[in-house]
């Protein structure tokens, strides 16, 4: 177990290192780095100061080491637009994005698993076929367009929900959240549904195919032969076995939900890290883009590690100690 | 190609022909498949023949009249023409814009998938055939790329490269090739153990010839099935990137960009600028996804 976690930690460090190299060459080495790093309005003096500060006359590997050591000290540059450290700017936006992603994951579990169960148990009836066909629609609808149609329906036509923005955050243990006010939820619910929909379709289909497969297994046939009530078979025998892969997928989707939240946040003007990324791309605010990529990589790496460990903890058949180790 | 036919034919195709025919027969019998197939066919005809069907050329500025801007569906133009689906802020007929936008969406989707399939297949084939260190290195790169959400990588790539149809295609190829490399490698690893590959190697053929002429045709099936479905994925990706403002340029509006243009007028109730291009996009994607879904289900070996 300890060995496995250590191995994965070392792997994760390599991934972070690789991303830092790619980012370094993309931003610093391709084209004129000064064009990318100093805003076009900068004075010649500021430009010269920047060249000196970044040591652009040094060999490439020395430049990279400099970039790396600054990054390790939490310095990924200062935003051109806001004039504050890029890292700080992103960290401020993290609670808004996490709030959205966590609610979307909750919706995925609450809708995806029961619907998938229904579809799997009634797959030859209209109900099951209807749910499964609906799920094709669910992952076909372009996310951003669906968001706009939600706004059109519930904000413009019906006037029930606000079209954009986030409610006034309430401080909970030092973190500003909007989960505890009705106003917060009125802003949150549409973006959360928008973000969750493709995931609901995915989890639904996974659950359904798991149920279909489990129903033909010996242990389910045996439980049925023993005369157990159908409800008990579903709860104790089928669900328990299929939930492991489903939970793993939901965990892994955490990372991609953070990525997809860039779209949802843009549509609903939700003040999270994704919206910040898009705004920074518009304003050519490169330090923020670089900082976002590094921080997002860190989050993905940590999430994947946690999911792997949880997976092994949930499923006794998975052994963490690899033979190669 | 012709001379090597004897070698490739000796093993699988004979056994697979009846299965392929059965799958096609099964598929054709399903009403959903027929519906989706017909819809896709109709869309492709509309896309190819867009200049014939479109009431106006949306790129020809001489045709556009700003006074016709943001007219609701079924409005009369200054010149007496009826705008069936309304107009956008530039006074562009939405129906025409959608037909031309579909062309760009499909162009980007098809060409990026074709290039990604080509690149990925060659990488996967090389990894499987050469093996050893090359294999390990290539597959670590593949793992690395697939470890990140596609949309984010494409977004960051385009943020660095700038807008343009060619750049979008390049970005989509860069984020997608790794999938094909992985599928091709696992398929080629199974195939390369077979006798015909050994026979070709014993005949002294060079590695490139064995890979391209002997292995590749026999490994292509699963890769192509995957590629079919990925066209829909690529089209959505392009639309999303264009919506986020890093995709195709304003002079060549794809469906995604048309939808994005309508976003600013959505709150004032001008729904048609975003609604109709979105429906067209949805129809295209849904048709491809339904066909892909059924194809995958029919090819599933567990169904016998």
Main traits of this protein?
heterodimer, A: about 325 residues, mainly alpha, two-stranded antiparallel ribbon, 2 strands, B: about 300 residues, about 75% helix
Secondary-structure topology with pairs:
The complex is a heterodimer of chains A (about 325) and B (about 300).
Chain A (H helix, E strand, L loop, with lengths): L1 H28 L3 H5 L6 H11 L5 H13 L13 H36 L4 H15 L2 H15 L12 E3 L2 E3 L4 H34 L2 H8 L4 H38 L5 H10 L3 H29 L11
Antiparallel strand pairs in A: 1-2
Chain B lengths: L4 H5 L2 H18 L1 H18 L1 H4 L21 E2 L5 E2 L10 H37 L1 H15 L3 H12 L3 H27 L3 H8 L4 H37 L11 H12 L5 H28 L5
Antiparallel strand pairs in B: 1-2
Helix pairs in contact in B: 3-12, 5-6, 5-8, 5-10, 5-12, 6-8, 7-8, 8-10, 9-10, 10-11, 10-12, 11-12
- Largest two-chain interface: A-B, 41 and 38 residues
User: Overall 3D geometry of chain A?
Assistant: globular
Number of strands of chain B: 2
Which class best fits the helix and strand makeup of chain B? mainly alpha
Mean pLDDT of chain B equals 81
Report the biggest beta sheet of chain A as strand number plus sense, adding barrel if it closes: 2 strands, antiparallel
Name the shape of chain B in a single word: elongated
Q: Strand-residue fraction of chain A?
A: under 5%
